[in-house]
């Protein structure tokens, strides 16, 4: 089954369906659905099923497991953006009495708090949350396994703490905050805490025989912020595009960019993947993907977006093991991005320009390194090397005549214009680095001064 919401080429649609069909067959999963989105709309959906006449579509719910974590992370980042907490705050400041109060909010978001991966037995994914009524039951007697902040160690219990943090600071349940602050603004009407028909049932497929066993579906209780949600391919595609582009009703683009930045170094030998603030990061086939994988008994899920390509893909399956939805989803992104690359928007001039800002454009020199400064819109600027290697960065206007670095070496650094007494521009100061209009321009701007005899030959 396929349907097109924008004109994809028939060859592209066939390639997408072939990838989904192959994943369902080779992964031996009862059903599997995939969807692709770009430019705010669903481009394609395709499903396969072992039961004729029951092919899932992009509106069929599946359990999404740990794809719940980015939703919880967005709630936490909203609290930060509202000034209700700081990412460097210790947990104890907002959620006292946990026994691990020294870990910070940022460490919990990026899985570097040193917490155990799972709660104590019995396995929380196949047992009711009522067995763990208190945070002490989730954390157990030995909640910290590693030095705090030193390494990435994936922790489901850490996201339980973050869900409780949201409740403590916001004053409503995690579920209420989720509905009001993410699901309703983004129109994710088919993303729910409990399943709502039409939804798939969860199955285990025998590893050595083509037979199946139903998996239990439990309410996870306190562990819900780590993996409770049910959703559809269509809803998750919409959420994936939000993670790439932002939405001021929920989180702005700068905060999403922060969440997509690696929080800690990856494990040794695993330099093609990392973790930001609630988001997994992978590098495959020369492309960088942002998103998350998910699994619970009976279900597998993958949500990935190629930010540079502007293409998102979601793959959902109802089997405990078998297909790898994350790999299939990144393949769907690649198929569309390579076969039908996004057509850029027409170039248009800026609606207005500040003459003083225009005066700053053009070549600048840090010593003998040549850079170009250009205006990027909204009063922002970009500094790029004109030849050879160098430190390129984009800067956002601060509203006080300075700019703040957004990426690269100068991320977080301040760029300011230094003027002479007659108000003419002397130089640019970027984190103490001096950029002049000429290489080693004579005057008092260059640290250490400039040789009085000037440039010379051999």
TrEMBL record:
Its EC number is 3.1.1.103. Residues 354-437 form the DUF7586 domain. Keywords: Hydrolase. Residues 20-337 form the Beta-lactamase-related domain. Gene3D superfamilies: DD-peptidase/beta-lactamase superfamily. GO terms for molecular function: hydrolase activity. PANTHER family: D-ALANYL-D-ALANINE CARBOXYPEPTIDASE, D-ALANYL-D-ALANINE-CARBOXYPEPTIDASE/ENDOPEPTIDASE AMPH. This is Serine hydrolase domain-containing protein. It comes from Streptomyces lavendulocolor.
